Amino acid sequence: MTGWLGLRGLTIGAALAFGVTAPAMADGLSQFEKLLKPQIPPGALTYKSAKTLGDNGFVLEGVTLTDNSDGADKKRPVPVKKITVEEFDFAGFEKDQAPTFMKAKVEGIAIDAKPSESVDLKEMAGLDHVNGDFLIDYRLDAKARTMSVNRVELDLEGLGRLELSLVVDGVDADSHKKDGAMDDAVLRTAKLTFEDRSILGKLVPAVAKMQGSDAAATIALAKLMLEGVRAGQGEATQTAFDALASFLDDYKKPKGPLTVTLKPDKKFSGADLKNAAGADDVIKALGLAVNYAGTVPHPPAPIKQ
After folding, report:
1. 230 to 193, 233, 262: CA distances (angstroms)
2. I need a surface site. Which of 11, 59, 192, 264 has the fewest CB within 10 A?
3. Residue 22: CB partners within 8 Å, gap ≥ 6?
C-alpha cells in the first residue's frame, strides 16, 4: 500500500510539474483572434458570439459582413447566421505559408433585393431577397504538392446549387511562393455540378428583357452560339453540346442537374488551348464530358458550302 501511495504521489507530482512547465495549447478561437482577425479590415466582420471548436476550429454566430474597402460600391452589410470553421491550418498561416487545409461553412447568408447601387434583384428577377450557404473543404499535401478540393459549394435557397471538386498537382505551399502557389499547377480531375431549382427560369427572362428581347429568342441565340462551335466536330463534341442544348431547352424546369467532368490524359496547359484546332481537340485534351438526364439529340445544322 505504501508503495502504491508513493507511486501515486509521484505520478501526481509529475503531472503538476508538466502542467506548470508545458506551454498552454491554443484553441481554435484564440488562434483566430490572434492570427486571422487582425488581417480583417476594421468593421468588415462583426459577430454577436463566438466559441472554440477544438484546436483548429471556431464558430461565429450573428455575423455581419461589410465591404468597406476603398472604392466600395456602397455595398450594404450582409447578415450571416453562422460561420463554422471545423479546421484551419493556423500553423502554416503563421509561418506565412498557404494554409494546407481548411473546412468551413457559412450558413444563412442573407442578401437583400438591392445589395449594391448597381444591382437590383427585384427589378432583374423579381427577387425580394436571396438566402444562401457556402462551403469549402480542401487539403494540400505539401510533400506531394497535390491539392484536393473535396468540395466547394454555393447553395442558394430555392434557386440553385453549384458544386465543384477537383484535384490539382504541382501546388507549392512554400512561404516564398505564397502568391504564386498555383503557377505550376496541373489539373488532374475536376467535377462541376449545377442543380437548377428556379434560377434559370428567373434569369433568362430578366436577361432577355435587358436586351430588349424575349426568353425564347435569348435561348435560341445561345443555342446558335453553341452551334457555331460544334459545327464539323466529332462525336464527343456533339454529345457534350447535345447535353448543353437540352439543358437550355429545359430552362423553365430542368430534368435534373447538369454535370461537367474533366479528366485530362496528360498535363494540360494554356498552350493546349492556344494550339487547339477546334472543340474536338479541347474536349479530348481535357477529357471533358457533359451529362444531363434530359439530353435529347440535337442534329447539327448542315455546313453551308
Report:
1. 22, 5, 18
2. 11
3. none
**Cell numbers found for residue 277:** 484546332
Model confidence over 106-140: pLDDT tens digits?
A: 999 998 877 666 667 777 777 788 899 999 999 99
Nearest to 101 by CA among 153, 45, 173: 173
Here the cell at position 173 is 505551399
**pTM for the model:** 0.82
Torsion of CA 264, 267, 271, 276, to 10 degrees: -30
* Confidence grade of residue 11 (pLDDT, cut at 50, 70, 90): very low
- For residues 28 and 48, give the distance between their C-alpha atoms in angstroms, rounded to a whole number: 17
Contact 101, 91 (CB under 8 A): no
**Mean pLDDT in residue range 88-94:** 94
Q: Which residue, among 156, 251, 130, 157, has the nearest Cα to 201 in the 3D structure?
A: 251
Locate the domains of the chain by residue range: 19-197, 198-305
Q: Positive or negative CA dihedral for 173, 146, 164, 282? A: positive
Alpha helices in 95-214 (DSSP H): 121-125, 199-210
Helix 235-249, helix 279-286: angle, nearest 10: 90
The C-alpha atoms of residue 152 and residue 262 are separated, in whole angstroms, by 16
